[in-house]
């Protein structure tokens, strides 16, 4: 019996989750655009 397995990929939009949580604690952000940024300079460094 031969089965051909195809990879399955999923995408999770965690940035939107962070914004939704912040809007719960800071209602003044509810009708405003919110941006999530990261400091990519620290990614992948091993000191």
Automatic annotation (TrEMBL):
A GO molecular-function descriptor: DNA-directed DNA polymerase activity
UmuC domain sequence ranges: 9-47
One Pfam family hit: IMS
Key words, A-Z: DNA-directed DNA polymerase, Nucleotidyltransferase, Plasmid, Transferase
InterPro entries per record: DNA/RNA_pol_sf, UmuC
GO biological process: DNA repair
Top-rank taxon, per record: Bacteria
Protein's name according to its UniProt entry: DNA-directed DNA polymerase
Organism of origin: Pseudomonas putida
Lineage of the organism: Bacteria, Pseudomonadati, Pseudomonadota, Gammaproteobacteria, Pseudomonadales
